[in-house]
Amino acid sequence: MSDGTKKLLLGGLAIVLLGYVAYKVSGVIGEPEYVAKANSRTLMDIDTGKLYHFELTEDWGPYPHKNPDTGKDTLYPIEWCYNNECGKAGGTPVILNVWRGKPNEPTYCPKCGALVRFHNPRPSNAGGAEESQGH
């Protein structure tokens, strides 16, 4: 085998090896946490209060969504209440009144009575990140 052929083979092998290492590293690192959060939703059954976690898909349609356990369209998005005792407990899931057909009525947490709104902020005195249940 000529020196030129050997160099070409070694160069090709190096490229394949680098590609394999990059592939393995990307599998370990994965996508950033904020991307995963943006591509998923937690919904709550309006009748039972049970939470369901879904990954967004291209056919993601309007609410309510079908409950996989009952087949009924009873799943709505939630906001988390972190006020008062809810913050100390890691948050309380709340379905906003806009989803209940009452767009002009404010939503109050059924547990602590605090006002809950879209993208409800965590107050500075709420529980720490380790208590946030991944929210």
Number of helices: 3
Number of domains: 3
Q: Proportion of β residues? A: 15-25%
Biggest sheet record: 4 strands, antiparallel
Give me the count of strands: 8
The residue fraction in helices comes out at 25-40%
Strand order of the largest sheet: 2-1-4-3
Write the layout of secondary structure elements.
Blueprint: H1 3-29, H2 33-38, E1 40-45, E2 51-55, E3 65-66, E4 73-77, E5 79-81, H3 84-88, E6 92-94, E7 107-108, E8 115-116
Antiparallel strand pairs: 1-2, 1-4, 3-4, 5-6, 7-8
Structure report:
- The structure is a single chain.
- This protein has 135 residues and is α+β, with helices and mostly antiparallel strands.
- Strand 7 and strand 8 (115-116) form a beta hairpin.
- Strands 2-1-4-3 form a 4-stranded antiparallel sheet. A two-stranded antiparallel sheet has the order 5-6.
- The model is unreliable at 128-135 (pLDDT under 50).
- The protein is elongated and about 80 Å long.
- The chain contains 3 helices and 8 strands.
Give the tags:
135 residues; 3 domains; four-stranded antiparallel beta sheet; 3 helices; 8 strands; disordered C terminus
Can you give me a brief rundown of this structure?
The protein has 135 residues and is of the alpha+beta class. Helices cover 28% and strands 21% of the residues.
